[in-house]
Amino acid sequence: MSSSIVKTISGLIGLLLLAAFVLGLAESISSGFAGFWGGLPFWVISLAVLTLVAYDFWDSCLRKE
Fold first, then answer.
1. Per-residue pLDDT tens digits for 6-39
2. Taking 80 as the threshold, does the pLDDT of residue 65 lie above it?
3. Residue 64: CB partners within 8 Å, gap ≥ 6?
4. What pTM does this model have?
5. For the stretch 32-62, what's the b/e string if a residue is b when 16 or more beta carbons lie within 10 angstroms of its beta carbon?
């Protein structure tokens, strides 16, 4: 396999695992004791961080130089 294909596949797997963990954690906080309004700041931070992670994946693996 080519190095770029391995880099893309491993980056995508990492992105998906991180997104599943962070979104699951945010959902758990919001549905638990904190409630929706208590978990809202964590949702905002989580979505901002996942946006940055997705941009970094695109920048390092998918963008043509």
1. 999 999 999 999 999 999 999 999 998 888 899 9
2. no
3. none
4. 0.86
5. eeeeeeebeebbeebeeebeebeeebeeebe
**12: closest CA among 54, 63, 64?**
54
- CA 30 vs CA 8, 17, 26, 41, 51: distances in Å: 32, 20, 6, 10, 20
> What residue has token string 């997104």?
19
Burial of 11 (0-12, 13-18, 19+ CB in 10 A): middle
Distance, CA of 64 to CA of 33 (rounded, Å): 46
